[in-house]
Amino acid sequence: MGLVLFILLIGLPIVEITLLIQGAMIIGVLPVILLTIGTAALGTFLIRQQGLTAIRALQRDLKEGRPPVASVVDGAALLVAAPLMMTPGFVTDAIGFLLLIPPLRHAAARMALRRIRRAQERGNIVIIRR
Predict the structure, then answer these.
(1) Residue 7 confidence (pLDDT)
(2) Hey, where are the domains in the chain?
(3) What three-state secondary structure class fits 91?
(4) Distances in Å between the alpha carbon of 9 and those of 3, 13, 28, 119?
């Protein structure tokens, strides 16, 4: 877990800054700035649209008495994608955009659930049930 935090807090910003500088050297500073602003705006629009869809699906599932598992997974993924899209940088934007693709979002959720289950089996995570 410590390595993951190190990579997220130290490594990712270094990679993002490097890519922004390289991009500015290749296509220019203004295009990189416009790309950064454009991806944030596009991400905001897409997250809003998909968020509204997830809320409607959640309401529909609850109304029909079904467990809203897919709706909750979609909402959680969008909560992760939103700050990634707002963070300046190409890597975070790419990860955020990937989370906006439903099949990839669901695959990421299944992978995360498997990791949580493995951690629980090893005793690294305790899940309290009421």
Answers:
(1) 82
(2) 16-122
(3) helix
(4) 10, 7, 27, 22
